[in-house]
Amino acid sequence: MCGRVWWGGEVLADEEELFSAVDALLEQAVRDPLPEPAERKRLREAAGLTQDQVAGALQTRREAVGNWEAGRTEPRPPKRAAYARLLEGLAARFPAPGPAGNTSTASAGPTATPARETASRTTAPHTAPAPAAAPRPAATSRPASTSRRPGAKTATPGKTTAAVAVDPRFAHGPLAVIDVGADRKVVAYCTGGLVLDVPAKSIPALVDWTLQEAKLGQPKLSGPGKDADPLLVLTESALERYGLPTTLTEEERLAGRLPEGHKVIKQLARAEWKLTKRGFGPWARIYRPVKGSERACVQLCIPSWHALDSRHWGTAAQLPPAELARVLGAYASRVLTPRGSTAVTGLELMTALHPPTRASAPHADGTRHSEHNPGSLGKDPVDPAPCEAPDGHPLLADLPRFHIRGPGEKLLEEAYDWARPMTDAECTLRHLVGIDVNMAFAAGANGLIVGLGAPTHVKAPVFDPKLPGSWLVDLSHVDLSRVKVGKDTWADLDAGLLPSPFTPKGERPDGPAWYATPTVAYAVELGYDVAPIEAYVRYDNGRYLDAWYQRLRDAYLATMADLGVDADLAPADFLAAMDGYQERDPQLATVVSAIKATVKGGLGKLRERPRGEGWRPGEPWRALARPTWRPDIRAAVISRTRINLHRKIVKHAAFTGQYPVAILSDCVVYAANGESPLDFLPYRDGKPLPGGFKLGVNPGLVKHEGTQTVLWGEGVREQFNAPELNLARYIKDGTVTDADNGE
User: Fold this and answer.
1) 115, β-bridge pairs
2) What sign for the dihedral angle of Cα 733, 681, 577, 327?
3) How many CB atoms lie within 10 A of CB 448?
4) Which of 171, 390, 535, 574 is the most buried (most CB within 10 A)?
5) What is the DSSP letter of 170?
């Protein structure tokens, strides 16, 4: 028997291949029968099972179960047989209800299915489609005079209480879009297609109604945390109705708020409502001081005041109210109720998952006190190490006025911006193909150990790859022409065609410099010894970002699955699914964009710089008062993300002899003869190079970013007289607006 051996060490015999092919035909010819997708969902909900529970039993992902229930994909053997068995058993226990069962809510049994009420009237300002992402079940008790579902003709079964534990305080979802209809009545568009009549005649009355009657909000994400405040999104018609301007003046826009003397602010003051320090702006918080555990805060979002940045939310601000509620509701249910920009929400998500304090164990008299929550960043800010402090920080106030810190004084962990001239051999190829790492910085945060407390200064330390911190060490001796690519396996590479892993510009270091732990650990991984001169390390540490990563990963994968891009697709199928995925549902594509921006923006907020306010170098700025102002955590994530990318590049070069032409952040460009990533990525039998690039939707895997011709690349470099113009910046659509300035 003759077979062929590939890098996985597996031997595939011709006879075995034939048997496998026959088995595949048999599987296609005789498949376990499955009920219709809608019935699959009904059976699971009737049994009070969640998609997570079904996925756990079948050893698959929750998104896969959701796709089976939506009819987007079908389970494959051997999971298909097990799934069919499950559904067969559930069908025997929970037969399909008759017409009466679809509308009855009187049954008190464990499988009773509460019905959504019939709309109180058949017309409404806008049709409210139920969201494909994260639908919200109807409340079990709602007066018909104050709520309606436009266009509803018959009742639709909702999820049982056992299947989805809906907090009755927030039965109508996390947010509502407030609009004024053609009949001049104020309505609130909620998630799931629900529309509420709003009786409030003023902003103070609207806040009261929200807290007392609207049943809006979101349960806390962590035991010691706090529930999310309800969010009201005000359309232009609602702004006019409540005496607010539809747009801000230039002076108000620069100030970021209405003037203190505005009549609405006076109305709030008379009603004893307060505004936070940022005032009444695009994202306003209206609150009363907490009494006991009672929550009394409502947040406003005003799209026409540019609350929704078009770079991240696209045209969401121009959507009709029902569709805007769908987009923001999907984001809120999967990530967090927006609390400002996507960057602010990304930072708030960290705190929501790791609240700074928790209640202590009860004392002898039954009372409790607030104490530090282990694994969090605490409630008090900590100073960075001097090398981690950005220019202008109070720690650096004693430096000479025009002093420029070099690598030996300043930690500079940033994403790649590197390019090189193409070789003669590369110029003979036809195409430049860009691949982009999905959610690269989120993947860099996954499993990363970061410091939780203040740094400790150590002289001549022994490097510990598990100890987060900043290390002053000379890595100039690391030679990329010969590196380790596996245990006791060395590879000879062309170092001149590779960027250095230690600097953002890819230049080889020429002496001691400050690096985060992942960068130094990679030097050791490549087979070289390191001898740090000094370090600032954090002995109090943990995987602070793991839950944050998991929440954002799940949100991203679930939304991409709704767009037809599943996590288990074969490489060619994945590329086909990604082609035009945004056009399948532009609203959900907007949610994907916002999720990505939440990752990058949240990490960027960890080192937020001064934003006007009359700040001068050497003085503190507002962000420094936050426990989440942690430039060391940001540096560690960026370091690990850059190293993860370089590791894949090295593996790819060692196996294929191919080297990148340009790298920008998480995008890598290679020269190839074909237009597809499959024309240069070394797949065999559907499996990628271990440790190299792999096509897929999961964070850390890659997708096709764009393809241009080699002639295009050489042409734009010649046009701008820039032989090292970073082509990765323009590979997506080929449009070059100006010369690369490196910023």
Assistant:
1) 157
2) negative
3) 21
4) 535
5) G
Residue range 497-550, pLDDT digits in tens: 999 999 999 999 999 999 999 999 999 999 999 999 999 999 999 999 999 999
* Sole residue written with tokens 């747009």: 247
Whether 395 and 383 have beta carbons less than 8 Å apart is answered as yes
Distance separating alpha carbons of residues 492 and 479, to the nearest angstrom: 10
CA dihedral (218, 222, 223, 229) in degrees, to 10, reads -30
CA 727 and chain centroid, separation: 26
Phi-psi region of 530 (alpha: psi -120 to 50; beta: other; left: phi over 0): beta
Query: What is the rounded CA–CA span in Å between residue 168 and residue 139?
Result: 8
Close Cβ partners of 223 (under 8 Å, ≥ 6 residues apart): 358
Place of tokens 């008090």: 380
The whole-angstrom distance between residue 65's C-alpha and the CA centroid of its chain comes to 21
How far is it, in rounded angstroms, from Cα 540 to Cα 388?
A: 17
CA dihedral angle for residue 195, residue 201, residue 203, residue 208, rounded to 10 degrees: -70
Rg (CA), the chain: 28
User: What is the rounded distance in angstroms from the CA atom of residue 167 to the CA atom of residue 219?
Assistant: 7
Contacts of 695 (CB under 8 A, 6+ apart): 571, 574, 575, 677, 678, 681, 688, 701, 702, 703, 704
1-14 pLDDT, tens digit each: 444 334 544 444 45
Q: Is 651 left (phi over 0), alpha (psi -120 to 50) or beta?
A: alpha
Which tens digits make up the pLDDT trace of 297-354?
A: 999 999 999 999 999 999 999 999 999 999 999 999 999 999 999 999 999 999 999 9
Please provide the size of the chain in residues.
743
Residue 571 to residue 577: CA distance in whole angstroms: 10
Q: Which residues contact 316 (CB under 8 A, 6 or more apart)?
A: 303, 308, 324, 327, 328, 587, 590
78: cis peptide before it, omega within 30°? yes
Whole-Å CA distances, 439 to 596, 697, 703: 7, 9, 11
